[in-house]
């Protein structure tokens, strides 16, 4: 059965911008975050406390977190791969963070410079420290429907890593189709494997649209009861350690589909589409939301 309502996790300020080659000023990021909040989005991944050598575009994480105009009822989160990142994020008053692992060994090494097992060892103290500070931790698993280096990833591997993150204390595990190679029935099978160990309401879908399958994949997992969707306005984004990966599924496209299905999101599609037009113009990128482009042409 489809859910009645979903929570949208807007990742454009982080996943959407992290791979942009040209510097984007902090003010533009802050305006993007503010516009997303004004469109009714209640959860925004605003920054990433990673090494500026690895991901230069996120180097202004402190200024972004400190510069936010916080809206009532909106959660502003940040990625924190290790204790160093978490401590910096806590200093900036972050209320929620995310750790990110992978279901592929090679991707884990390329992305965070350690094995899957080592990554879990690093996350454990991050979760402990966050708990002490009263900060909730979300967990990501990358490469759930394929890896740019290893190809096919068995659903059992995805289930193992997801379970480890959940048991460690992540309140929610977001399943990342990092390179967008998944297809609907494959997405269902993967989810079934993961949902054997984790309640479906503790899982989120984080699908990239590289092969144009993201909406179809989302439809498939919504049917299984997934009610948290990660997306990026204008379909911005890509992962620096997954060559050729394009953006997340576009938030506008997700909301248009959900509206058509009678699934509540609390998001104003007009304002969201305007935000997509604005940011793509501001950073000189094409708008990769079909809905956004269609609405702008009206
Ligand atoms: P490392 O080199 O193994 O770490 O990197 P290290 O502890 O040896 O430190 C090396 C240097 O980094 C030191 O600086 C540290 O201070 C610094 P140096 O002495 O050389 O000047 N450092 C840091 N600086 C700032 N913040 C930190 C931090 N930690 C260490 N937190 C590390 C390990 C994880 C830091 C590195 O590999 C890294 O930053 N990786 C970033 C990867 C990344 O951001 N990828 C994109 C996000 S994941 C994604 O997009 C997928 C997702 O969307 C889901 C999906 O689609 O599948 C989430
Ligand atoms: Mg991603």
Automatic annotation (TrEMBL):
Q: Which GO terms describe its molecular function?
A: hydroxymethylglutaryl-CoA lyase activity; metal ion binding
Which keywords does UniProt give here?
Lyase, Metal-binding
Q: Which superkingdom heads the taxonomic lineage of this protein's source?
A: Bacteria
**Cross-referenced InterPro entries, in alphabetical order?**
Aldolase_TIM, HMG_CoA_lyase_AS, HMGL, PYR_CT
Q: Which PROSITE patterns match?
A: HMG_COA_LYASE (PS01062), PYR_CT (PS50991)
Q: In which pathway does it act?
A: Metabolic intermediate metabolism; (S)-3-hydroxy-3-methylglutaryl-CoA degradation; acetoacetate from (S)-3-hydroxy-3-methylglutaryl-CoA: step 1/1
Using the UniProt record, name the top-level EC class of this enzyme in a single word.
lyase
Q: Provide the reaction this enzyme catalyses.
A: (3S)-3-hydroxy-3-methylglutaryl-CoA = acetoacetate + acetyl-CoA
Matching entries from SUPFAM superfamilies are given as: Aldolase
Residues covered by the Pyruvate carboxyltransferase domain: 6-273
Give the record's GO biological process terms: ketone body biosynthetic process; L-leucine catabolic process
Enzyme Commission number, as recorded? 4.1.3.4
Name the protein family.
Belongs to the HMG-CoA lyase family.
This chain's protein is named hydroxymethylglutaryl-CoA lyase
């Amino acid at each position: 059965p489809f859910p009645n309502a979903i929570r949208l996790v807007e990742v454009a300020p982080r996943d959407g911008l992290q791979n942009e080659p040209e510097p984007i000023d902090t003010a533009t990021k802050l305006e993007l975050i503010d516009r997303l909040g004004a469109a009714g989005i209640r959860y925004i991944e605003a920054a990433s406390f990673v090494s500026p050598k690895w991901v230069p575009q996120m180097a202004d994480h402190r200024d972004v977190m400190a510069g936010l105009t916080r809206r009532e009822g909106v959660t502003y989160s940040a990625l924190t791969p290790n204790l160093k990142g978490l401590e910096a994020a806590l200093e900036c008053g972050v209320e929620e963070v995310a750790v990110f692992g992978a279901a592929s060994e090679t991707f884990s090494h390329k992305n965070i410079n350690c094995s899957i097992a080592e990554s879990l060892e690093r996350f454990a103290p991050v979760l402990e420290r966050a708990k002490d500070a009263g900060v909730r931790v979300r967990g990501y698993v990358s490469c759930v429907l394929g890896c740019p280096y290893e190809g096919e990833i068995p659903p059992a591997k995805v289930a193992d890593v997801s379970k480890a993150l959940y048991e460690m204390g992540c309140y929610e595990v977001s399943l990342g189709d990092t390179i967008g190679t998944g297809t609907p029935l494959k997405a269902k099978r993967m989810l079934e494997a993961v949902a054997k160990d984790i309640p479906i309401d503790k899982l989120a879908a984080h699908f990239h649209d590289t092969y144009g399958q993201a909406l179809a994949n989302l439809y498939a997992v919504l049917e299984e009861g997934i009610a948290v969707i990660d997306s990026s306005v204008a379909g911005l984004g890509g992962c620096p350690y997954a060559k050729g990966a394009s953006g997340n599924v576009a938030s506008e496209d997700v909301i248009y589909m959900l509206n058509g299905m009678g699934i509540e999101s609390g998001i104003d599609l007009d304002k969201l589409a305007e935000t997509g037009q604005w940011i793509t113009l501001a950073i000189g990128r094409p708008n990769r939301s079909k809905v956004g482009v269609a609405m702008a042409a009206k």
